[in-house]
Amino acid sequence: MELDAVSIEQRDSADPLAHLQQLFSIPDGVIYLDGNSLGALPKNVSSVLTNAVEEQWGKSLIKGWNCHNWIDLPSRVGNRIAKLVGAEEGTLICADSTSLNVFKVLATAMKLRPGRKVILSDTGNFPTDLYMAQGLKELTGGDIELRLVAPEEVETALDETVAVMMLTEVDYRTGRKHDMKVLTEKAHSVGALAMWDLCHSAGAFPVHLKDANVDFAVGCSYKYLNGGPGAPAFVYVAPKHQATSGNPLTGWMGHDAPFAFDLGYTPSAKTDQMRVGTPQVLAMTALNASLDVFDHTNLEALQAKSIELSELFISEVKRRCPNLELASPTDPMKRGSQVSFRHEQGYAVMQALIDRGVIGDFRAPNIIRFGFAPLYLSFADVFKAAEILEEIIAGDLWDKPEYHQKSKVT
């Protein structure tokens, strides 16, 4: 059924989450469909960060570690993220980058499965995860095999040679979503451990780490958690592994008593063992403030709106741009909070969109991606974005020299 502006306005009027948009700072004239790369700025972050700089750091100086409890930011922020990914309190720590956390977890998992040499992943996994596995292989003298299969072949590829299954729940290109519970159960049935990357999951829809019996998880906080560019990542360790896992990067903050300054390393028996160096206080303070927006809703409501937004976008783009190929699953329960299309000149198409105020992104070789963050998107935004995309495709407006000039970041 063809929709019009009036019916779209009615959907926005009836949207129970519409009030959340006022919590974010979005530039006038911009339709932001790239929250799956970098979340928008929550309005409260600026004042919180200013206070942290001018009052806490500026006036408290070194005393801030105690009087403002900077030292416990990793666990305090971690516990807030834990609620968003279905993890128990005390099992998730905010620290370092996703890549570093991948390395920590892989090395730990291999240690917990002596005699097994295989890290199983899929060809849709985000490259940094694969790079870290390759680095671990080289560091161990090639004594590890990184086995890659097609995403749909993961379940059948799990066997008794696999030490750890390393998967990203939502494919960064297409948005295809793995079944976490099913694949974790299969991994355990053959004696393998299950590690999940939640970079495109956390804050987008409900995740159930405890219920799925996941062993380890990692993720970033600058996408759907809106923590800001370069915001610290997180790492989850299931309770059953906390006493025996250990962290190969034995920095002082993972020590059981870091301020005893022992010359020998004794790991914390808690998730703190996954800490390495000094917490990024300012970045973590900004992230902590950004998480406040989730106090105003729940992930089930966000997922429901995400599905409505993405289904509207798909139907409108299919109607208006029939030559664009949908790269994402048609079943909304089998994709994350993003929709991707293929176009041979996808980079130029996206530059033309950005030039007209519709910000998405491009992934090689031919994917144009659109993220749907229900916290700050309206149905009118999505409808208008489809209109602008139609104008660009129908008029070949993407075919300008400046739209073909690739920047460092695509």
Topology:
Elements: H1 5-13, E1 24-25, E2 31-32, E3 41-42, H2 44-60, H3 64-67, H4 73-84, E4 92-94, H5 98-112, E5 118-122, H6 127-139, E6 145-149, H7 154-157, E7 162-168, H8 180-189, E8 193-197, E9 216-219, E10 234-237, H9 281-290, H10 299-320, E11 325-326, E12 338-342, H11 346-355, E13 358-359, E14 361-363, E15 367-371, H12 379-394
Parallel strand pairs: 2-13, 5-6, 5-7, 7-8, 8-9
Antiparallel strand pairs: 1-3, 4-10, 9-10, 11-12, 12-15, 14-15
Report on the architecture of this protein.
Pathway: Cofactor biosynthesis; NAD(+) biosynthesis; quinolinate from L-kynurenine: step 2/3; Amino-acid degradation; L-kynurenine degradation; L-alanine and anthranilate from L-kynurenine: step 1/1. By secondary structure, the chain is of the alpha/beta class. It folds into 2 domains: 135 residues, Alpha-Beta Complex (Aspartate Aminotransferase, domain 1), CATH 3.90.1150; 248 residues, Type I PLP-dependent aspartate aminotransferase-like (Major domain) (Aspartate Aminotransferase, domain 2, 3-Layer(aba) Sandwich). The protein has 12 helices and 15 strands. The strands form 4 sheets. Strands 4-10-9-8-7-5-6 form a 7-stranded mixed sheet, sandwiched between helices. A 4-stranded antiparallel sheet has the order 11-12-15-14, covered by helices on one side. A two-stranded antiparallel ribbon has the order 1-3. Helix 2 runs antiparallel to helix 9 and helix 5 packs across helix 6. It is globular and about 65 Å long. The two termini are 35 Å apart.
